[in-house]
Design goal:
Layout: H1 18-22, H2 71-83, H3 86-98, E1 101-107, E2 110-115, E3 123-129, H4 134-145, H5 148-155, H6 163-169, E4 182-186, H7 196-211, H8 214-219, H9 224-242, H10 263-266, H11 288-293, H12 303-329
Antiparallel strand pairs: 1-2, 2-3, 3-4
Helix pairs in contact: 2-7, 3-7, 4-6, 4-9
Length: 330
């Protein structure tokens, strides 16, 4: 583990190595997976140390229980718990709550971070999630485009609750199902994967997914705009293939009634307005039309962000004028 041991180091036993463990000459503690390229002194493995406190470190918002509020953040941590050692994940969770992670950066499908341990120099951590292949993404987009609600919610920047089913229908998984899908590296001397520094970053990624669900897609190889462009293209192509519907309406069974000649009778109500019931419902996806239209080429990138609150205010005011405050709140 971290820190130098106060015990004497045997001269005849140098460093344990991956080759030694694989050859069966040296036992791997707990049969834990080895991190690629890691070499560690055996006398340091069981050492218990206290990490150096970090001023301004990234602390997990969750103080107890599960980390991550959204269903997709919790599915991320659940996926990790199925493929990794629970004890190491637990120590990583403690590091995340103590604020030992100094920073986290995203670049493509790779995450880099600095984690402060018990040594003065912070450890460098990198996590790379295996991206889906292009043909796999094409299958996913085909499935998503086939469901209007998926398209509407994704265009609105929301994560559909059933999106895992869409990925399953495309024969892939949004969340990792094997440790082979996660390539990690840490500059610490711990030889197992994940070390607590990597695990701490895993948990903080879960909370990052709360704030930005599309980060999951980026780690799998597609940006939000790439996904939305793919969905729009498929929806537009489907509409062109269907073409306009010119099917003639069936003739009325009841003969048409002549309009009254008297203007007074023409404007008279056939039934009182009180009998006319209006029951407006909130849309499943807020601002869905604005999201579906996409970003206009003639406007700055912030146009949708600017128009969103305006549309919401206009809608609320129209409801107040139409139904009154009591009816609208009912």
């Amino acid at each position: 583990m971290e820190g130098a041991s106060s015990r004497l180091r045997p001269a005849m036993v140098p460093f344990t190595s991956i080759a030694g463990v694989k050859a069966g000459l040296i036992a791997s503690p707990g049969n834990l997976p080895l991190r690629k390229g890691c070499v560690m002194p055996w006398w340091e493995y069981y050492e218990r140390t206290t990490p150096i406190p970090v001023e301004g470190g990234i602390k997990a918002r969750s103080k107890s229980g599960a980390i991550g509020k959204s269903w997709w953040a919790q599915r991320w941590t659940q996926a990790l718990s199925r493929i990794m050692d629970s004890g190491r994940l637990s120590r990583g969770r403690s590091y995340a709550r103590r604020g030992q992670v100094m920073d986290i950066k995203e670049k493509g499908n790779e995450i880099t971070a600095r984690v402060q341990g018990s040594r003065p120099t912070p450890y460098k951590v990198s996590i790379r999630v295996a991206p889906l292949k292009d043909k796999e993404w094409e299958r996913v987009l085909d499935v998503l485009a086939g469901q209007a609600i998926f398209t509407a919610q994704l265009l609105a920047g929301e994560m559909p609750t059933d999106i895992e089913e869409a990925f399953s229908a495309a024969r892939v998984s949004l969340f990792p199902t094997s440790s082979r899908e996660l390539e990690t590296n840490c500059s610490c001397p711990d030889w197992a994967n994940p070390c607590k520094h990597v695990a701490a970053v895993y948990f903080l990624l879960g909370e990052a997914f709360d704030d930005d669900p599309f980060m999951l897609f980026r780690l799998r190889g597609r940006t939000q705009e790439q996904i939305l462009e793919g969905l729009r293209a498929r929806r537009a192509g489907a509409e062109e293939e269907q073409g306009p519907d010119f099917t003639a309406l069936p003739a009325a069974d009841v003969p048409p009634t002549a309009l009254p000649v008297d203007p007074t009778e023409f404007w008279r109500l056939a039934a009182p307005l009180d009998d006319f019931q209006v029951q407006p419902r909130a849309p499943q996806v807020p601002l869905s039309l604005l999201q579906r239209l996409g970003q206009p080429s003639f406007a700055p990138a912030t146009l949708q962000t600017t128009l969103g609150p305006v549309y919401a205010t206009v809608t609320a005011q129209a409801e107040r004028l139409a139904f009154g405050e009591e009816e609208r709140d009912a």
